[in-house]
């Protein structure tokens, strides 16, 4: 079992460090002394089974829940977020699976939510939103009501709002779960563009292939504990699965299914039998029709 320890000393490449993070809910220890480092301008992928603690860790970093114990450092300074607004002020923004946008408001209004002074001149915020969305190459109409948008465009608005607030770290919680294959491809391009802009990405995913495609660094959690963090190039699917479940699955039924074909079973129904059954049904149907016509 791997237990690689991340380097917790602050360096110019570390934008955020979570040290010995624990979170206890009634009857459950969701996080147990977890260490996690977000590297500047990199895609940091969090992987683990359901209940591993991925979302809980990110919600703590984003100020959505209070820690039981542990410390968080942003740019080398210890922080204590009481609410998401505190985290956003420090440049930490989380995009949840359930969108936090207001569905009855327009795209532009959602972008400038919290900056109500702009609402005195709606035409101005629509122009500003249009220019800003175009600068991100986001094909979203600023006057559109958010409730009418699809999942992919809602994500664009969430990302645009994070960039507008000058977020240095954007956390995505299972962002591809509701996207089509084409939308996923576009989302991956958005993530790479954010990375080029110097934004650090934290990406929670169950999809191992997505982790291997997108990640610069991969961190694996299991049962609320940190298992391993390493460069993505040092992982393959087998290593990730082994770290997630705590054992090698290559010699199990799961592994054998990938390397062998189940032998064919006995044939249950022959083609001749099928033809005979169909012919009998047709004959019975014709006989019933003749009987009905003779009665009339």
Write up this protein.
The chain has 296 residues and is of the alpha/beta class. It has one domain (14-257): Rossmann fold, CATH 3.40.50.300. Helices cover 38% and strands 22% of the residues. A 6-stranded mixed sheet has the order 6-7-8-3-9-10, with helices on both faces. Strands 2-1-4-5 form a 4-stranded antiparallel sheet, with helices on one face. The relative contact order is 0.14. The model is unreliable at 1-12 and 256-261 (pLDDT under 50).
Number of domains: 1
The biggest sheet amounts to: 6 strands, mixed
| Order of strands in the sheet with most strands | 6-7-8-3-9-10
- Computed Rg: 27 Å
* CATH architecture level-2 label: 3-Layer(aba) Sandwich
Distance between the termini: 83 Å
Overall pLDDT metric:
82
Beta strands, count: 10
Could you give a quick summary of the protein structure above?
The protein is α/β, with parallel strands linked by helices and 296 residues long. It has helices at 54-61, 84-89, 107-111, 122-135, 151-164, 181-196, 208-214, 237-245, 253-259, 271-295; strands spanning 14-25, 28-39, 43-47, 69-74, 77-79, 92-95, 169-173, 200-205, 217-222, 225-231. The protein has one domain (14-257): P-loop containing nucleotide triphosphate hydrolases (Rossmann fold).
């Amino acid at each position: 079992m791997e237990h690689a320890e991340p380097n917790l000393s602050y360096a110019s490449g570390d934008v955020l460090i979570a040290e010995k993070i624990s979170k206890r809910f009634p009857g459950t220890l969701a996080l147990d002394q977890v260490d996690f480092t977000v590297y500047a301008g990199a895609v940091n992928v969090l992987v683990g089974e359901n209940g591993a603690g991925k979302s809980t860790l990110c919600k703590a970093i984003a100020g959505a829940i209070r820690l039981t114990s542990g410390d968080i450092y942003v740019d080398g300074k210890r922080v204590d977020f009481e609410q998401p607004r505190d985290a956003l002020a420090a440049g930490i923004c989380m995009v949840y699976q359930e969108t936090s946008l207001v569905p009855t408001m327009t795209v532009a209004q959602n972008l400038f939510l919290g900056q109500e002074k702009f609402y005195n001149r709606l035409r101005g915020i629509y122009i500003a939103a249009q220019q800003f969305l175009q600068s991100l190459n986001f094909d979203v109409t600023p006057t559109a009501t958010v409730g009418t948008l699809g999942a992919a465009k809602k994500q664009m608005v969430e990302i645009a709002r994070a960039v507008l607030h000058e977020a240095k770290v954007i956390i995505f919680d299972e962002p591809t779960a509701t996207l089509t294959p084409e939308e996923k491809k576009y989302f991956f391009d958005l993530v790479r563009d954010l990375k080029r802009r110097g934004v650090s990405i934290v990406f929670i995913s169950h999809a191992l292939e997505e982790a291997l495609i997108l990640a610069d660094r991969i961190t694996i959690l299991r049962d609320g504990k940190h298992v391993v963090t390493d460069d993505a190039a040092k992982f393959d699917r087998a290593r990730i699965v082994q770290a997630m479940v705590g054992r090698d699955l290559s010699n199990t039924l799961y592994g054998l299914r990938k390397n062998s074909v189940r032998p064919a079973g006995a044939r249950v129904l022959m083609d001749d039998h099928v033809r005979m059954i169909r012919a009998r049904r047709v004959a019975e149907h014709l006989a019933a029709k003749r009987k009905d016509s003779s009665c009339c």
